[in-house]
Amino acid sequence: MHHPPYIRYDGINKRPSSLFFGMVNQGVIGSLQAVTAFPLERAIMLRERASGSYSTSSYFMARTLVDSITILWPPIVFSCICYWSIGYQYNVGKFFIYTMFHVLDAFAATALATLVVCTCVSIERSTVVLSFLFEVTRLFGGLYTSPALLGDYGDWRFADALSYIKYAYVGVALNELTDLEYDCPPGKCVSVLLCWCECLGIT
Q1: Exposed (0-12), middle (13-18) or buried (19+): which is 29, by Cβ within 10 Å?
Q2: Is the pLDDT at 78 greater than 90, yes or no?
Q3: Residue 41, class by beta-carbon neighbours within 10 Å (0-12 exposed, 13-18 middle, 19+ buried)?
Q4: What is the dihedral of CA 28, 30, 32, 37, to 10 degrees?
Q5: Would you say 160 and 150 are in contact if contact means Cβ atoms under 8 Å apart?
Q6: What integer best gives the mean pLDDT of the chain?
Q7: CA-CA distance, 170 to 178, in Å (whole number)?
Q8: What angle do CA 200, 202, 111 make, to 5 degrees?
Q9: pLDDT of residue 9
Q10: Backbone angles phi, psi at 123, to 5 degrees
């Protein structure tokens, strides 16, 4: 898949899926903590709020700040290992952009999971609803269902806009495509790259 500074023709086809599933992976990891922790804390939080110890906004602000520390390190470690082992462009600036999108992806997934678990209360219901929402965000994330093709189905355009994976995926794809050098038979790579751009809706 990699032979920097030039990318082989067969490696170009593998790059979109590796970028996409990296985002899916970090989203799932980031959401698990919110789903399992909040239902256990809810009874304590309600009791202490009723006694006037603190307000609901104070609880969520403190919880967000504390959880940010644990949410931050998995995408950073993942990026440090996968970026160089997969063989994306050997550029420190692009690496930091890649890492930033993974961190933002994890925070977006955690925010979605927190919303679901606050609405559904129990772990069982939260897991069912969150699984459905994650499946929708994956389907409209840009790899399975192209944003460029959704123009023909106006009723489903909202799902494309709500998919946090799509924004992260397009971001890392643009980061990787910019200044990408490749080595292949004339005309073949150009068609693959143009197809990739058109599918992402970034032409």
Answers
A1: middle
A2: yes
A3: exposed
A4: -170
A5: yes
A6: 79
A7: 12
A8: 65
A9: 58
A10: -65, -40
